[in-house]
Amino acid sequence: MFTVTYTALQENKAQCIAYDRRRFSLDLVLISFLLCLEILSDPHRRAETDGFRRFLRSAKHFNYTIRVLGKGETWKGGDYMSPPGGGQKVRLLKSALEDIQEENKVILFVDSYDVIFSSGPKELLKKFQQAKHRVVFSAETLIWPDRHLEDKHPHVREGKRFLGAGGFIGYAPNLKQMLSDWSGADSDSDQLFFTKIYINPEKRVNEVMLKFEDGRVRARNVLYDTLPVIVHGNGPTKLQINYLGNYIPNLWMFETGCTICNEDLRPLSGLQSEYPVVVIGIFIQQPTPFVTVFFERLLNLKYPKNRLRLFIYNQEYHHEPHVRTFLEYHESEYQGVKLIGPEEDIDPETSRDIGFDMCREDIDCVYFFSIDVDVVLKNRDTLRILIELNKPFIAPMMSKPGRLWTNFWGALSADGYYARSEDYVDIVQGRRRVECISLGLWNVPYVSNIFLIKADTLRTDLKDPDLFESETLDADMAFCSKVRDKGVFMFVTNMHTFGRVLSTENYQTNHLHNDLWQIFENPVEWEERYIHENYSKVLKDGLIEMPCPDVYWFPVFTDVACKHLIEEMEHFGQWSGGGNVDKRIQGGYENVPTIDIHMNQVGYDKEWHKFLLDYVAPVTEKMYPGYFTRAQFDLAFVVRYKPDEQPALSPHHDASTFTINIALNQVGVDYQGGGCRFLRYNCSVTAPRRGWALMHPGRLTHYHEGLPTVEGVRYISVSFVDP
């Protein structure tokens, strides 16, 4: 048996590398006592960062005992992004070694913010013994901080050539001797100190992927085909360590899925005291479809409104009526509202800083919930779920239907832009294997559109006033870069279905109800907004009535769709005169004229064809077996009937194979009378239901007439399909 004591080193910006190199395979011998030293520093932030907690979790998993040096000391070791720096580590390590007298004691010295253990002390000691050296350092590809020393480094047959000070292991007497010459300042470079020892002949003593084993996850160095005991990511590989840390040690496995997702939760159910106060930041930075629906979903969040404060930033004059209507009816329900409108001319980056300040400066604020208006928040429990997961920074995964696009990136390219991680598709689709569900919490380098941040994090790590500012990066990328630099982990969760993100690229604002035109760009949202809730039962359950022979009646439009079509046509206003001469149609003559507006007059013909093809054609083919339609039309229009204008329509055939007639308003409420009579069958439909479609043959068999509207105004949408 042996005892393991570990003293941890946390530093501001640690060097990072995967530790399994040929010169540093961490192949150690079993010794009676293993002491691993690491120094804790706190460079103007809390010591226990997400990275340090991850480090402790992996150490605990493998039964390492942690001892921390330097806790509470102000970090004076410099900025690790540029030399000098790190000398404070050497001083603290040298001091700690003075009390160690045993000659056979082995010391492991590693960074922590960017380190995870992949195996236990037994394997660590065994691999050290196999290295057959008294002191073994990690190795790096790049020389740092003095590139002029490159020629003095010995050449190696394989592996990395240059020393890395982020991790080394050796016998206590040898480490003491190595550190005996240290007399530098805390701000001097530890890397340079150790490098000069290494290149002195008299003193000289990522290629990583996941490997899933039965009941265990390891990091595998594919370059050297080895299994590291410790994985350390430095410099450009810091993101790789975050990726590996989603799995190692055994945080996510095929057999169990996520093993830590239910740890350190903050349950809200049964909460005796009041819910935490949340500032919700709503950002409207461009013309966006379905903004009215966004506010409807915001209202439906399952969270007490008296514990919510709203910060609304609207850069678009087009959306002022939507914001104004929402606040007019609901502002009083919330604890407070701050609105920044387009007339204030505040740029988007500044607006987000102002939103953060609203939370930072409010002593009661516990969380800031940032939502862009293009987010479709389907899950009413989203805010509760994120709070209960109890992370400093967490985002719900959002996607775009039918695409692999999401609001997070799994990796970054060398220039800081999008790159696909090995597990990205698995996370998006929720599966890592066909039989294995891939759900969990994932530490990622970039999130956008929607996220939750603890107010304490905004007041400490993310207290800088210009988090979204950058001369080279977009605001969202600049923000994520600064969050990463501060050591705050950005988690995304796919454990629930939360919603989606709208496409805004081709959204036009030249109509009254522009959302009607979104059937191509955002078909899922369009369907939810405009297609009747019972339409799916038409095909699945046969929810089709036949009020007259071969006349089929089924629900297709919502009340909102009917209302928007009517208002769009009235807004356009160019109703035909109802005469036989009609220059809009081929030949210029209409036998049975109506007062109407054609779909192509308002630029809606392509969208209307898409609607007929997707929602009418399947019903046609079901009810008229053997007939196949491409839903082509020459005439599709909205008709208006008024007692003092055109109350009725004389008997006629339609210029179609079949006709679709959709009632757009409600008999008995909006008008009296009306309906359709099929003369051959002496059968009338006199109580048309709003949003329901009548489908009937157009020629030969179904000679019909429009019955008189005696009061009010009646609107119908008519399509002559397959003329």
UniProtKB/TrEMBL annotation:
GO terms for cellular component: rough endoplasmic reticulum membrane. It is a peripheral membrane protein. Gene3D superfamilies: q2cbj1_9rhob like domain. It is found in: Rough endoplasmic reticulum membrane. InterPro entries: Collagen_mod_GT25, GT_PLOD, IPNS-like_FE2OG_OXY, Oxoglu/Fe-dep_dioxygenase_dom, Pro_4_hyd_alph, Procol_lys_dOase. Keywords: Dioxygenase, Glycoprotein, Iron, Membrane, Metal-binding, Oxidoreductase, Signal. It holds the Pfam family GT_PLOD. Residues 632-723 form the Fe2OG dioxygenase domain. The keyword Ion transport does not apply. Its cofactor is Fe(2+); L-ascorbate. GO terms for molecular function: iron ion binding; L-ascorbic acid binding; procollagen-lysine 5-dioxygenase activity. This is Procollagen-lysine,2-oxoglutarate 5-dioxygenase 1. It comes from Cyprinus carpio (Common carp).
